[in-house]
Write a structure and sequence with these properties.
Blueprint lengths: L4 E2 L4 E2 L2 H4 L4 E4 L5 E5 L3 E2 L9 H11 L3 E3 L17 H6 L4 E10 L2 E10 L4 E12 L3 H17 L8 E8 L7 E8 L6 E6 L3 E6 L5 E6 L6 E6 L5 E3 L7 E6 L5 E6 L6 E6 L5 E3 L7 E6 L5 E6 L6 E6 L5 E3 L6 E7 L5 E8 L2 E8 L5 E3 L7 E5 L5 E8 L2 E8 L5 E4 L5 E7 L4
Parallel strand pairs: 4-6, 4-7, 5-7
Antiparallel strand pairs: 1-12, 2-12, 3-32, 7-8, 8-9, 10-11, 10-33, 11-12, 13-14, 14-15, 15-16, 17-18, 18-19, 19-20, 21-22, 22-23, 23-24, 25-26, 26-27, 27-28, 29-30, 30-31, 31-32
Length: 427
Amino acid sequence: MRKLVSLLLFCFVSAAQAQLTIEITQGVDNPTRIAVVPMGWSGSQPLPEDVSRIISSNLERSGQFDPVPRTSMLSFPSSEADVFYRDWRVMGTEFLLIGDIKEEAGRYYVTYHLYDILAQRKVVSAGKVDGGAAQLRDIAHHISDKVYEKITGIRGAFATQVLYVEAFQNTGSEDKFRLMLADADGARPRQLLESDQPLLSPTWSPDGRKVAYVSFETTRPAIFMQDLATGQREQLTNFTGLNGAPSFSPDGTKMAMVLSKDGNPEVYTLDLNSRRFTRITNHYAIDTEPSWTSDGKGVVFTSNRGGKPQIYKVTLASGRVERLTFDGEYNARGRVSRDGKTLVMVHQRGGVFHIAAQDLTTGTLRILTETNLDESPTIAPNGAMLLYATRFGGKGILAAVSLDAGTKYRLPSKQGDVREPAWSPFF
């Protein structure tokens, strides 16, 4: 019997095979000018990673910063004694990040300082972090988060990760589907699972230790949960019909999903401790695509009970259902931001599918994307950006947009179609 699925946990694949690349297409009108100076390094061999360049790229990708090119820098200070505010002020620099890297017994120790050029003062003094060679990218993401938060007041999400599905249509052979895990900037892609059957709807547990997804490896859709540290997989559903759209509750104790085991697609919750299923919708229409409200007291879902797909919310304690969306011909795949203030969705208007955001207090809806066939929005844990799947150049790619629509970038893959993104929680 042909083997359908092979598990390759945390196995690095080549950049040409799976790495996502960053293509920034739009930033805010007045980004903060920052100089990220190459960090001091006195080692006999080049650093395994250019920490400063990773930091600069992270900040630029946020759309909030305009890094000074290295070729335009008048000096490369690595200590406070070498910082001359006037030189950086002449260049229009608002903030300056410098640092120094030392290596002892295979471990790298990074010290960094952030300066406010206009105020002529140090705003981060002697931030320190260390790790092995393989953790230099993690160090760069950590420093990026600290700088971003210090300047913007918003927690950075550069040290997070994304799940996504790659689909390959090989000439003369069967299709392949891969569940991938990568840094938020698309670097260090790792293959979690490969199958010749479709993989759908990956999602994270709130502690970032487990993922769930839909696999057709049993010849029909089934929901699996996988431990990222051990690679252990567990099949959670095996019902006849539809088993789909898993979503962990904010406290990680339950999972919402769609099942048609009773004849009609309905939203259920599964208690992950007792393994008890509870049906939470009961309607002759199709109820699907559940996700949790930020307080865990309700579930939003897509339903055509009003004639066309719109987004509804069910309050778990009372069973009360209310409609959330009214604007547009079609609204689906709703996701609530972690602060509970915003609902993002796939929104159809004039026959075109965009990503939109709705203020849950005022009801105001803003269309965030200008592309077509946009789907699968997922919000960064800091609420500043969201990822979604779209098409560009005839291929499925991932793209990102800020919730104010001011920043946009693409993450195309060099091989295969990319779809179904899921942004991790904070680790």
